[in-house]
């Protein structure tokens, strides 16, 4: 009898853990419709295609290790998530770096810098950079 109660309690606990844990799902990019064009594009081109825009969003997801709701609320065109404004600033910074520092070198360096260059799957790249810069490295003579 005790074994049955213990087994039932264990199964219940495991069930609760799995029901509370949301498995990562790819954002449903295909469900986004393009009725009158995209709204509230302040940095990206106004005439960007759906495929190009969704490709960029997938790159941002991967480069920062986030889902869509990191920058977007339910109304994708709203400016009610502060991370979206930071993202716009970072896009401008990246574009300027590529334009001024790398494009003059040659066409193969046209987009040398992107989000993943610094972020590498995290929203706070500076923490790892600071750790790297403060770590003592032994140099052999």
Features:
5 helices; 141 residues; single chain; mainly alpha
Describe the structure concisely for a colleague.
The protein has 141 residues and is mostly helical.
Question: How would you sum up this structure, described in words?
Answer:
The protein is mainly alpha-helical. Helices cover 50% and strands 0% of the residues. It contains five helices and no strands. It has helices at 2-20, 50-64, 82-102, 115-119, 125-134. The longest helix is centred in the middle third of the chain and has 21 residues, at 82-102. It is flat and about 80 Å long. The relative contact order is 0.09. The model is unreliable at 21-26 (pLDDT under 50).
Ranges where pLDDT stays below 50 over 5 or more residues in a row are 21-26
Fraction in beta strands: under 5%
Q: What is the rounded Rg?
A: 22 Å
Count helical runs. Answer: 5
The portion of residues assigned to helices is 40-55%
| Coarse shape | flat
Based on secondary structure, the structural category is: mainly alpha
Which SSEs are present, and which pair or pack?
Layout (H helix, E strand, L loop, with lengths): L1 H19 L29 H15 L17 H21 L12 H5 L5 H10 L7
């Amino acid at each position: 009898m005790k074994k049955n109660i213990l087994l039932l309690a264990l199964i219940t606990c495991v069930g609760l853990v799995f029901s509370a844990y949301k498995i990562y799902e790819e954002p449903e990019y295909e469900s986004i419709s393009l009725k009158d064009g995209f709204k509230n594009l302040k940095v990206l081109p106004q005439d960007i295609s759906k495929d190009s825009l969704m490709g960029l969003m997938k790159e941002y997801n991967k480069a920062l290790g986030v889902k869509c709701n990191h920058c977007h609320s339910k109304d994708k065109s709203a400016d009610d998530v502060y991370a979206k404004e930071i993202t716009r600033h970072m896009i401008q910074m990246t574009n300027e770096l590529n334009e001024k520092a790398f494009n003059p070198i040659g066409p193969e360096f046209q987009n040398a810098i992107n989000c993943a260059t610094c972020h590498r799957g995290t929203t706070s790249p500076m923490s790892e950079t600071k750790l790297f810069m403060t770590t003592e490295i032994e140099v052999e003579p």
